[in-house]
Amino acid sequence: MNTTIDQRLPGRVGCPILPVLPLSTTEYEGTERQNLEQVTPEVEAILEKHSVVLHWVLLKWRKSRGAADAERQLTLVLTSEYTPTQQQQWVDAVMEVRSLLHASKLDWSVELTDIHMYIGQRKSFPILSTDNNLIDSWGNARSDFFNKIQNHDWVAVDVLHRGYLKDETYPTIIISTRDANNSALWDTTLQTLRQVLQHHGVNAQVELLFTKGLDFATTEEGLNPTTTEEGPNSTTTEDSPKEVPSEPHTTVRETFYQNMSMGISMGTSCAASGSNHSGTLGGWIRLKKGLTVLELGLTNYHVLKEGIQDIVKAGFGGDSRYGTVVSPSDNDHQIARAFLEKNVRDMKNDLDDCEMRLECVSRDDPSYTSSFNGMDMLRMNLSSALTKLRAAISTSRKIGKIYLASEFKTRDNWRYSNQPGKPDQNEDWAIDWCLFRMEWPPSISRTLERHGLTSTNFDYINGQDRRQAVTQYCSFSARKNYKVAKRGRTSGWTNGTLSAIPSTMRYSKLTPEEYEAISNHERIPTNQYIDFQDKFGGKPVSVHTIISTTEERFISPGDSGAFVLLNETPNVVSGINGLVILGMGFAANDANLTSYMMPFDLLVEDIEEATHGKIIEPHFAGTLD
């Protein structure tokens, strides 16, 4: 009998070693259910003996989310309410239950878990500007920390507050890694990491999460959504993400074919022509080189990568190897057109039904007038729907030609040069941009598309003049957090908080052969999985971390390229007013539902260096205090 006790996560004790969070849980429907009924009274007695208040006794299949089915464990799940003072009682109870199962010839794992952990989702909260001791001590510890995990297959390290309630969280260093379930490999490393943190005075826990890789937020046709159901009979629980939609957000789709004289919306769908994938058109820049001023669209390199056969690192665009950019993407155009066609069919059917009913009603009938007026309204709605469908059919979606791209590269961020700790905090920040030259018409609108922008949590942006253009960007403090918002192709308007400690990401070592061995429904939702191997020189890169202020993601697949805007009144030294760009979103971590962005001022520096030009719009407005 394997008697190894798993105590790696507070509020969760098991035997033998349990799968690492986030978890996928499914019902067990086999014949051993009758054994569960037989042992339950004895299990209840054991927990009562150790003063552990038992809530549920469940028999479930448990595995790390995304792991192969062969790795799942048939698990006796026991739920209670955890307090740190009960740790030894929990350990003793689990060992005794495990012995009971062994004596009963039941090869089940035992997991005693906090009820909130089982039915709820462990949440991430940003590091605040007031967490000065944590910010400073992590700056001192980070180099030693990364040296200890360099031989592991980790893909992201995030420093955040973690817990189930906002007021009951603890600073946590979260390691998202593909080899999280290799307990023999990680047990020694975790002990060493805790020693490193203690040595540098970092008062934080270490949490290990399983992931197959980061989600570069482009979307592809046929994404399989992941759903979450709560409760003891759920099919997927505990740290599972909300549904990941593959279709464009309704409020974004409705603006696809608007009057092009108004300009293409910031935050709408775009892609390379002929691509099966979709990303987000962030916005525009005006680039001056000599006497020439060019209007260029801006998104991520990986959004338009399929439109570039060979990157030309010197000179300007116009090369035949650069592809055409379309908005909406080919897939999103098909989705939108199918929706509009169905809408027209449904309205025609409703109008036919109304006409038939009206034929059976006498003009003297009191209901005749209201029925007639209702039919008139249906005709008006049908006319509007037909106009939208004609626009979808006739509007050219070609909006420009790819001009220049960064590829995947890194750049030093001088804003972190004078921070406490080792000097390497300024090194190797992720850069991922692509410019395309606009064709006239259309242009990209300078004003925000307000459709779908509610007053809740968007008070600052909504308080601005609706005609106000987004014409400025700014730098921001290296150790403060800010309220932010974005409009993206998939999730529309979302709001979040920029954390005061950046994250570090590294790309998976998964080989193409290993990737092909993974079933389609378990692959991460991005066409770029293999393309991203060993990018950014195969080294860790820094990014800013954004935590959504709601249960939804801040960035979802398809939102890559979205501009991230300040969503609070600027408290500034240089007197910034109005709407301000802080960064551009490009990736997300499905393991802990964090989103990542690149600072806009760093992108501007890189674009100007690559083009030998000067970005004159949006203009630099100063530095946030």
Description:
- This protein is of the alpha+beta class.
- The protein contains twelve helices and 31 strands.
- It has three domains: 6-119, no CATH class; 121-328 and 397-625, no CATH class; 330-396.
- 26% of the residues lie in helices and 28% in strands.
- Helix 4 (132-148) packs across helix 5 (183-199) and helix 8 packs antiparallel against helix 9 (367-394).
- Strands 12-14-13-17-18-21-16-15-30 form a nine-stranded antiparallel sheet.
In short:
The chain is of the alpha+beta class. Helix 1 runs antiparallel to helix 2 (about 85-105), helix 4 (about 130-150) packs across helix 5 and helix 8 (about 330-360) packs antiparallel against helix 9 (about 365-395). The longest helix is centred in the middle third of the chain and has 30 residues, at about 330-360.
How does the SSE layout of this entry go?
Elements: E1 6-9, E2 12-15, E3 23-27, H1 33-49, E4 56-64, E5 73-80, H2 87-103, E6 109-114, H3 115-119, E7 123-125, H4 132-148, E8 154-163, E9 169-177, H5 183-199, E10 205-210, E11 215-216, E12 219-220, H6 250-253, E13 268-272, E14 277-281, E15 283-289, E16 292-299, H7 301-304, E17 324-326, H8 330-359, H9 367-394, E18 398-405, E19 409-411, E20 429-431, E21 434-438, H10 459-462, E22 472-475, E23 482-488, E24 492-498, E25 503-505, H11 512-516, E26 541-548, E27 563-566, E28 581-589, E29 594-599, H12 600-611, E30 614-617, E31 619-623
Parallel strand pairs: 5-6, 9-10, 22-31
Antiparallel strand pairs: 1-2, 2-6, 3-4, 4-5, 7-8, 8-9, 8-25, 11-28, 12-14, 13-14, 13-17, 15-16, 15-30, 16-21, 17-18, 18-21, 19-20, 23-24, 23-27, 24-26, 25-26, 26-29, 27-28, 28-29
Helix pairs in contact: 1-2, 4-5, 8-9
